[in-house]
Amino acid sequence: MEKYVPDFYQKDIYSINYDKLLDRGIKCILFDLDNTIVPFSEKSPRKETKDLFETLKKQGFKIIIFSNSPKIRLKPFSEELDVEAFGCARKPNPKNFIKVLQMNKFEENEVAIIGDQMFTDIAGGNRAGITTILTTPLSNNDPFWTKPNRFRERRMMTKLRNHDLFKKGRYYE
Asked: How many domains does the chain have?
Protein backbone atom coordinates (compact mmCIF):
# COMPACT_ATOMS: atom_id res chain seq x y z
CA MET A 1 0.00 0.00 0.00
CA GLU A 2 2.83 2.44 0.78
CA LYS A 3 4.20 2.06 -2.75
CA TYR A 4 1.35 4.35 -3.82
CA VAL A 5 2.20 7.14 -1.36
CA PRO A 6 4.02 10.05 -3.01
CA ASP A 7 6.89 11.90 -1.35
CA PHE A 8 5.20 15.19 -2.29
CA TYR A 9 1.63 16.04 -3.27
CA GLN A 10 0.79 19.32 -5.00
CA LYS A 11 -2.12 20.79 -6.92
CA ASP A 12 -0.21 21.06 -10.21
CA ILE A 13 3.27 21.45 -11.68
CA TYR A 14 3.13 25.20 -11.04
CA SER A 15 2.62 24.76 -7.27
CA ILE A 16 5.74 22.68 -6.70
CA ASN A 17 8.61 24.25 -4.77
CA TYR A 18 11.43 23.42 -7.17
CA ASP A 19 13.99 25.14 -4.92
CA LYS A 20 13.18 22.48 -2.32
CA LEU A 21 13.91 19.80 -4.91
CA LEU A 22 17.26 21.42 -5.67
CA ASP A 23 18.02 21.50 -1.93
CA ARG A 24 17.29 17.75 -1.81
CA GLY A 25 19.84 17.16 -4.56
CA ILE A 26 17.39 16.57 -7.40
CA LYS A 27 19.09 17.17 -10.76
CA CYS A 28 16.64 15.55 -13.17
CA ILE A 29 12.85 15.75 -13.31
CA LEU A 30 10.76 13.25 -15.23
CA PHE A 31 7.39 14.76 -16.14
CA ASP A 32 4.39 12.68 -17.12
CA LEU A 33 2.59 14.30 -20.05
CA ASP A 34 -1.15 13.68 -20.10
CA ASN A 35 -3.09 15.38 -17.31
CA THR A 36 0.19 16.44 -15.69
CA ILE A 37 1.73 18.87 -18.21
CA VAL A 38 -1.42 19.28 -20.32
CA PRO A 39 -4.92 17.82 -20.46
CA PHE A 40 -5.07 14.67 -22.57
CA SER A 41 -6.91 16.47 -25.39
CA GLU A 42 -4.27 19.17 -25.97
CA LYS A 43 -1.74 18.83 -28.77
CA SER A 44 0.88 21.40 -27.73
CA PRO A 45 2.20 23.01 -24.55
CA ARG A 46 0.80 26.22 -23.10
CA LYS A 47 2.88 29.36 -22.70
CA GLU A 48 2.97 28.99 -18.91
CA THR A 49 4.42 25.50 -19.36
CA LYS A 50 7.09 26.80 -21.73
CA ASP A 51 7.96 29.51 -19.20
CA LEU A 52 8.13 27.00 -16.34
CA PHE A 53 10.38 24.63 -18.28
CA GLU A 54 12.70 27.48 -19.29
CA THR A 55 12.98 28.51 -15.63
CA LEU A 56 13.68 24.93 -14.54
CA LYS A 57 16.38 24.50 -17.18
CA LYS A 58 18.00 27.78 -16.06
CA GLN A 59 17.97 26.42 -12.49
CA GLY A 60 20.03 23.50 -13.77
CA PHE A 61 17.42 20.74 -13.93
CA LYS A 62 17.50 18.19 -16.72
CA ILE A 63 13.90 17.79 -17.87
CA ILE A 64 12.57 14.64 -19.53
CA ILE A 65 8.98 13.98 -20.56
CA PHE A 66 8.46 10.41 -19.38
CA SER A 67 5.18 9.00 -20.59
CA ASN A 68 3.38 5.82 -21.49
CA SER A 69 2.14 7.64 -24.59
CA PRO A 70 3.79 6.85 -27.93
CA LYS A 71 6.68 8.96 -29.19
CA ILE A 72 4.50 10.56 -31.86
CA ARG A 73 2.33 12.09 -29.10
CA LEU A 74 5.41 13.38 -27.25
CA LYS A 75 7.27 14.82 -30.24
CA PRO A 76 5.52 18.24 -30.46
CA PHE A 77 5.96 18.75 -26.71
CA SER A 78 9.59 17.69 -26.76
CA GLU A 79 10.33 20.03 -29.64
CA GLU A 80 8.39 23.06 -28.36
CA LEU A 81 9.68 22.71 -24.80
CA ASP A 82 13.20 21.82 -26.00
CA VAL A 83 13.49 18.80 -23.72
CA GLU A 84 14.07 15.08 -24.15
CA ALA A 85 11.15 12.68 -24.26
CA PHE A 86 10.92 9.01 -23.38
CA GLY A 87 7.76 7.42 -24.77
CA CYS A 88 6.14 4.05 -24.22
CA ALA A 89 7.72 4.05 -20.74
CA ARG A 90 5.56 1.15 -19.51
CA LYS A 91 5.04 2.73 -16.09
CA PRO A 92 4.83 1.40 -13.38
CA ASN A 93 7.52 -1.04 -14.50
CA PRO A 94 10.74 0.39 -13.00
CA LYS A 95 12.90 -0.91 -15.89
CA ASN A 96 12.69 2.28 -18.00
CA PHE A 97 13.04 4.54 -14.97
CA ILE A 98 16.34 2.78 -14.26
CA LYS A 99 17.30 2.95 -17.94
CA VAL A 100 16.88 6.76 -17.88
CA LEU A 101 19.02 6.98 -14.74
CA GLN A 102 21.76 4.87 -16.30
CA MET A 103 21.69 6.67 -19.67
CA ASN A 104 22.06 10.04 -17.93
CA LYS A 105 24.40 8.84 -15.17
CA PHE A 106 22.10 9.89 -12.32
CA GLU A 107 21.71 8.22 -8.94
CA GLU A 108 18.20 7.44 -7.65
CA ASN A 109 18.36 10.30 -5.13
CA GLU A 110 19.02 12.79 -7.97
CA VAL A 111 15.81 12.11 -9.92
CA ALA A 112 12.13 12.89 -9.35
CA ILE A 113 8.99 11.89 -11.24
CA ILE A 114 6.02 14.24 -11.40
CA GLY A 115 2.73 12.72 -12.46
CA ASP A 116 -0.99 12.57 -11.87
CA GLN A 117 -1.46 8.81 -11.34
CA MET A 118 -0.67 6.73 -8.27
CA PHE A 119 -0.76 3.42 -10.14
CA THR A 120 1.71 4.43 -12.85
CA ASP A 121 3.82 7.47 -11.99
CA ILE A 122 4.03 7.11 -8.21
CA ALA A 123 4.16 3.31 -8.00
CA GLY A 124 6.80 3.17 -10.75
CA GLY A 125 8.89 5.95 -9.23
CA ASN A 126 8.73 4.40 -5.78
CA ARG A 127 9.72 0.99 -7.18
CA ALA A 128 12.70 2.63 -8.92
CA GLY A 129 13.72 4.40 -5.68
CA ILE A 130 13.33 7.97 -6.95
CA THR A 131 11.48 10.94 -5.47
CA THR A 132 7.78 10.91 -6.36
CA ILE A 133 5.48 13.90 -6.72
CA LEU A 134 1.75 13.45 -7.30
CA THR A 135 -0.30 16.24 -8.86
CA THR A 136 -4.04 16.55 -9.25
CA PRO A 137 -5.09 15.60 -12.80
CA LEU A 138 -5.58 18.68 -14.98
CA SER A 139 -8.76 17.24 -16.47
CA ASN A 140 -11.35 14.58 -15.78
CA ASN A 141 -11.09 13.63 -19.44
CA ASP A 142 -8.89 10.54 -19.55
CA PRO A 143 -8.19 8.12 -22.37
CA PHE A 144 -10.23 4.94 -22.06
CA TRP A 145 -7.17 2.91 -21.00
CA THR A 146 -6.65 5.16 -17.95
CA LYS A 147 -10.21 4.87 -16.60
CA PRO A 148 -9.69 1.50 -14.83
CA ASN A 149 -6.64 2.94 -13.05
CA ARG A 150 -8.65 5.97 -11.91
CA PHE A 151 -11.26 3.64 -10.38
CA ARG A 152 -8.55 1.63 -8.59
CA GLU A 153 -6.85 4.87 -7.54
CA ARG A 154 -10.01 6.17 -5.84
CA ARG A 155 -10.28 2.93 -3.88
CA MET A 156 -6.59 3.12 -2.93
CA MET A 157 -6.97 6.74 -1.81
CA THR A 158 -9.75 5.65 0.55
CA LYS A 159 -7.51 2.92 2.03
CA LEU A 160 -4.60 5.33 2.38
CA ARG A 161 -6.83 7.94 4.02
CA ASN A 162 -8.14 5.34 6.47
CA HIS A 163 -4.53 4.54 7.45
CA ASP A 164 -3.71 8.27 7.66
CA LEU A 165 -1.10 7.92 4.90
CA PHE A 166 -2.65 10.20 2.27
CA LYS A 167 -5.67 12.43 1.88
CA LYS A 168 -6.84 13.76 -1.46
CA GLY A 169 -6.67 17.57 -1.49
CA ARG A 170 -4.32 17.81 1.52
CA TYR A 171 -1.24 18.98 -0.34
CA TYR A 172 2.21 18.63 1.20
CA GLU A 173 5.91 18.92 0.40
From this structure: 1
